[in-house]
TrEMBL record:
<dbReference type="InterPro" id="IPR015590">
    <property type="entry name" value="Aldehyde_DH_dom"/>
</dbReference>
<feature type="domain" description="Aldehyde dehydrogenase">
    <location>
        <begin position="14"/>
        <end position="467"/>
    </location>
</feature>
<dbReference type="GO" id="GO:0006574">
    <property type="term" value="P:L-valine catabolic process"/>
</dbReference>
<dbReference type="InterPro" id="IPR016161">
    <property type="entry name" value="Ald_DH/histidinol_DH"/>
</dbReference>
<dbReference type="InterPro" id="IPR016162">
    <property type="entry name" value="Ald_DH_N"/>
</dbReference>
<dbReference type="InterPro" id="IPR010061">
    <property type="entry name" value="MeMal-semiAld_DH"/>
</dbReference>
<keyword id="KW-0560">Oxidoreductase</keyword>
<dbReference type="GO" id="GO:0004491">
    <property type="term" value="F:methylmalonate-semialdehyde dehydrogenase (acylating, NAD) activity"/>
</dbReference>
<protein>
    <submittedName>
        <fullName>Methylmalonate semialdehyde dehydrogenase [acylating]</fullName>
        <ecNumber>1.2.1.27</ecNumber>
    </submittedName>
</protein>
<dbReference type="InterPro" id="IPR016163">
    <property type="entry name" value="Ald_DH_C"/>
</dbReference>
<dbReference type="Pfam" id="PF00171">
    <property type="entry name" value="Aldedh"/>
</dbReference>
<dbReference type="GO" id="GO:0006210">
    <property type="term" value="P:thymine catabolic process"/>
</dbReference>
Length: 482
């Protein structure tokens, strides 16, 4: 094992079953992490509740100071963190670095929260004023997937904590190493002990989180099936919940799109992080005659070399699942223009690599057109006009992102209005809204109300108190309606 065995930041005592952590780069064992039990969740929740009392009583300006220091630490350690992400997730180090940049951005948003949460005040009656203030919820939890071990947790951690909450963080059991570094750096920045704790584990620990009475709010990011289950279980236990699920993003390419720019952008969207992004291009809808763009898309795809500028997928099971989708699509009549199956990287024969893959002639009925494949695979579907293209996009049960490539503003606007997705790109394949715009999809890509970052997240992590005061020497008792 390259790294010592991991432990929860709050240990409940007895020994746990351990799960090996394998590097997707070569299949080697990096470390192992405990499969936490309900008793572990209970210990972490109790420590969090205790620490939150003092933390919640600080002013938000005092709490923000921790995040100014934390932001500096993230920057200082960005290369080391990017390397760790590369090892545990398999993405390229540059892609790991991009995660830290995004984590820093959200931390900066948290640093600005004192300015953003200023309340309202109004003299609602003579000498009577009503003012609002935001209070933390108490203990919260954040459950995250493997594909962004640093970026996705940072959608919640700095914002929830800076707003005065405590948090249990349940990282993916596939990528728990950077979670430990997050906890270390938060402690170095001055966060009180017990306020933020890492609880390792799988579905069982998530269910214990959903059931724990001290936990008031849960965010989840992961596959749609799990997001639904966590939403139902958490809200069934009367918690606030916001659960982001999977995706199937459609890029609509029109004949007037700028050829080279579109091709480069479509492939970057499809293959970045080996296609394991909830914002990745899964399907390209080619409207009318766009064959020269498709030729360029294939040219661009062929520039990607696994292990050199294309990372690994997370597991052998993922590699096999992705290749099965390609096999089935081919058997159903799709043409494989660029084939990434059976990829082996010399010197890393144990790694889980899938090469870039482009399929043309995919039809709406094929599984590859409907399911989330989560690999570097682009399925091209043909549409005769914009209406048909929008109908294909609208038929997907998901609704994370969609994009259109064109030089005509009016058409772009129509498609942006008609697409059934929460984040839309115009000539942009990965339309992530940066802060203060919130991140969040629609339909089966999100359960709950609001976005996970941005201004909307303030509403999720706080409750509003309305204080009505009268300071007057008059004897009069009633005041309503004066
Ligand atoms: P996953 O659903 O397998 O796991 C996510 C988390 O849930 C992990 O911490 C895991 O331990 C836990 N978990 C797994 N099954 C569970 C269950 N049945 N009940 C409760 N908890 C469970 O997802 P993953 O494979 O780690 O990540 C990939 C998925 O995440 C993709 O579907 C991707 O689209 C999605 N994702 C979505 C967004 C978004 O913003 N919508 C962002 C990133 C990833």
């Amino acid at each position: 094992m390259k790294y010592p065995a991991l432990a929860n930041t709050i240990a409940a005592g007895s020994s746990r079953e351990m799960l090996p952590i394998l590097s997707p780069l070569d299949g080697s064992t990096l470390s192992e992490a405990p499969l936490s039990t309900a008793a572990d969740v209970d210990a972490a929740a109790k420590a969090a509740a205790e620490a939150q009392v003092e933390w919640g009583a600080r002013t938000i300006r005092q709490r923000a100071q921790v995040f100014f220091r934390y932001r500096q630490l993230l920057e200082q350690h960005q290369h080391e963190l990017a390397e760790l992400i590369h090892e545990e997730n398999g993405k390229m180090p540059g892609e790991g670095l991009a995660e830290i940049v995004r984590a820093i951005e959200v931390t900066e948003f948290a640093c600005a929260l004192p300015q953003m949460i200023a309340g309202e005040v109004l003299e609602v009656s003579s000498n009577v004023e009503c003012r609002t203030q935001r209070s933390p919820l108490g203990v919260t939890a954040s459950i995250t997937p493997f594909n962004f071990p640093m970026m996705v947790p940072h959608w919640t951690i700095p914002i929830a904590l800076c707003l005065g909450n405590a948090m249990l963080f349940k990282p993916s059991e596939k990528t728990p190493l950077s979670a430990m570094r997050t906890a270390d750096l938060l402690q170095q920045a001055g966060l009180p002990d017990g306020l933020f704790s890492v609880v390792h584990g799988d579905r069982n620990s998530v269910e214990a989180i959903c059931d724990h009475p001290l936990i008031r709010a849960v965010t989840f990011v992961g596959s749609t099936a799990a997001a639904k289950a966590v939403y139902i279980r958490s809200t069934g236990n009367l918690k606030r919940a916001l659960c982001l699920g999977g995706a199937k993003n459609h890029l609509i390419v029109l004949p007037d799109a700028i050829e080279e720019q579109t091709a480069v952008n479509v492939i970057a969207s499809m293959a970045g992080c080996a296609g394991q992004r909830c914002m990745a291009a899964a399907s390209m809808i080619a409207v009318g005659k766009v064959d020269s763009i498709i030729d360029k898309v294939c040219e661009e795809a062929k520039k990607l070399v696994p292990g050199k500028n294309l990372g690994a997928v997370i597991s052998l099971e993922s590699k096999q699942r992705i290749e099965r989708y390609i096999d089935e699509a081919e058997a159903a009549g799709a043409r494989v223009l660029v084939d990434g199956r059976n990829t082996v990287v010399a010197g890393r024969e144990g790694g889980y690599y899938v090469g870039p893959t482009v399929l043309d002639g995919v039809t709406r009925e094929m599984k590859i057109a409907q399911d989330e494949v989560f690999g570097p695979v682009l399925a091209i579907l043909r549409a005769s006009d914009v209406e048909q293209a929008v109908a294909i996009e609208n038929a997907s049960p998901y609704g994370n992102a969609a994009a259109v490539y064109t030089q005509r503003g009016g058409v772009a606007r129509t498609i942006a209005n008609q697409a059934s997705a929460g984040m839309i790109g115009v000539n942009i394949g990965v339309p992530v809204p940066l802060e203060p715009f919130g991140f969040g999809g629609w339909n089966d890509s999100r359960f709950g109300v609001g976005d996970i970052t941005g201004r909307g997240s303030i509403e999720f992590w706080t409750q509003t108190k309305k204080i009505t005061s009268r300071w007057s020497t008059e004897l009069k008792q009633g005041w309503l309606g004066d």
